[in-house]
Amino acid sequence: MEAYKALEALLADGKVRSIGVSNFMPDHLDRLCAASAVVPAVNQVEVHPYFRQADVLAANSAHGILSQAWSPIGGITFYRPGQQSSTMQDPSITDIAGVHHKTAAQVMLRWHLQQGRSAIAKSTNPSRIAENHDIFDFELTSDDLTRIDALDTGVRGGPEPDAITLEAYGRQIPEA
Question: How many C-beta neighbours within 10 Å does residue 170 have?
Answer without folding.
Answer: 7
